[in-house]
Amino acid sequence: MAVLCAVLLTGLTACGGGDGAEANSPDLADQDRFLHDYVEYLNESDESGLARLLDAHPQGGKDARARIKAYGGQGWDVRWSRISEFEGVWRVDMTGTARTEDKPVRVTETVAWEDGNWVMAPLPGVVPTPSNAAGTEPPG
Question: CA 11, 15, 16, 17: dihedral to nearest 10 degrees?
Fold first, then answer.
């Protein structure tokens, strides 16, 4: 079972984007469209489409490449549920199957609403973690 937990840490820049619409408040129907597009680009292994979706960060292309490598072309048939513990930030749990082998899919993503765009936290390792970030140990 593939498990991914992308954590959005305070001060950590995330990857994401959308169509550039400047809305004042998040629309969860729009978040559903963002997530649907995300899954569609993964299933098609469409790196350039996924990079456009994750374009709010300079590392969006690098994150798209890593996501295609990890999840691309698997034929995900997923549904999602979400919970928001902080204003403008959702934990999105995607569950279902990868149709190629009916493998279970369970992925957790952090999706935030920032400056009129849906923003997805990058996969671990895509954006270097600052040495003083929470959860890192000082050199010893």
Answer: 90
Determine the Cα–Cα distance for residues 38 and 15; give it in Å rounded to an integer: 12
Angle formed at CA 17 by CA 33 and CA 107, multiple of 5 degrees:
60
Residues with Cβ < 8 Å from 40, sequence gap 6 or more?
Answer: 46
In terms of pTM, does the model score above 0.85? no
Please classify residue 52 by burial: count the beta carbons closer than 10 Å to its beta carbon, then call 0-12 exposed, 13-18 middle and 19+ buried.
Answer: middle
Distance CA(61)–CA(58), nearest Å, equals 7
Greatest CA separation found in the chain?
Answer: 48
Give 26-63 pLDDT, tens digit per residue. Answer: 999 999 999 999 999 999 999 999 999 998 777 889 99
Angle at 69 (CA atoms; ends 47, 89), nearest 5 degrees: 75
CB atoms within 10 A of CB 89: 18
SS3 25: coil
Say what the pLDDT of residue 96 is. Answer: 95
